[in-house]
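Ticket #4471: complex job returned nothing on first submit. Input attached below:
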Amino acid sequence: MTNETNTYQFSGYGELYSYTLLQDPPSGYEWQSPYVIALIKLEEGPMVLAQLTDLDGEPQIGDRVQMVTRKLTTDGATGMIVYGYKFRAIR
Amino acid sequence: MTQVAIVGIGQTPVAEHWDKSLQELAQDAITQALADADLQTVDALYVGNAYGGTIGEQSHVAPLIADFAGLVGIEAWTVDAGDAAGGAALRAGYLAVASGAVETALVVGVEKMTDRVGSAREGARNTSIHAELENLQGATLTSLAGLLMQRYLHEQNIPLSAFEPLSINAHLNGSNNPYAMYRNKLREGAFAKAPMVSHPVSLFDRAPDGDGAAAVILTRLENAQDMVPTPIRIVGSAVSTDQFAIQDRQQLLKLEAVSRAVDRALSQAQLNLASLSFAELHDAFTILSVLTLEAMGLAEYGKGWEFIANGQSVIGRNGTFPISTMGGLKSRGNPSGATGVYQAVEATLQLRGQAGDNQITDAKTALLLNLGGMATTAIAHILSL
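Support reply: We reran it on our side without changes. The output follows.
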């Protein structure tokens, strides 16, 4: 067994595997509610969970999506912005 | 290993117990269990509690409960396994007695989660899912169930109403259980029209959060036979775990931890599925029940919805595979860390013939299945006469 890890760069493209419209957000996410949580199957194989953003109509399982950088939440008393990945449909 | 038996049980109603502290709730259940077993004290206490440290701002609850119950000085510690904490506490008590290390163990599941509502409660429940890959993304446990259910509906091309028999059954049985949180019956057709919580998971799909405490007392079978008329043996006990974030699962809709835990418990008990008189599953969401039936091997993958289609004739009290016999999580309620011990109390009532209007005829052997996260932890116990 080795502790070495390799870094891999994904293209950011994938396919919508599943989605759900979340209406009971956890603390820190109320301002975005309701929002869509999704599972995206990246074109390289692995699955990733993320929000869908820039929605234009009902998402469809099988939609081609791409990763974008978006604000996830804020942290601490100073409201430091935490950025992360979300996905949007490519039309 | 020493054989282990249940000799005492106790439970509080599942409700919003705003007027009682965690330790008072636990005390109610403990007093009942000690009286049931005709005991004054025990050697050890194992407590299942999921959200004390977050919602209650009180961790380290086992010695608090022991102290309040007049059991200062005994071995006492708290077990953490998300919503499977109750099942994990039962496992801890079982191992302690089976190993010979402890003679009599008190297992308590206790939860107070209704003191916080809305996003504060959802945020607390999120401590049982992946902090970075799920919680930080804005997901909740309910939304994970929504993802699984949406994919299942897509792959099987079935209507939402296919899941209805599970909620109808739970409420039918819960209506006869005085400890159940919701004792209303569900009308046919209402399930698919219920308001959405995380589409396609609706209000009539998701088990309600509640406060409550349940307790069981375990001891060596050889002693139990002199103590109570009907000791209930624990003949199987197993825990398995899965990849923590659902995105890392080999196949999203295969609850592999459930398959492993149930297989191991049945193996230990030298029984098979046909030996079971009934099962208390972790019906926090109907999709979990359907996927559990598939993972156990009662239905082929993708066909769990067909298994429950005939409703009462399969999963009802007089059916071929009764489940949620006292209301399940859906109707009796889901006081998270306590749920696994409520399952043990209810199964014991059934096996003793004390289940009243919900009595399963000739109940001999029961499966209890308690899940943490989205079946990240699966804990299976088999109880038998």
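Residues 153 and 305 of chain B are 10 Å apart (CA to CA). Closing as resolved unless it happens again.
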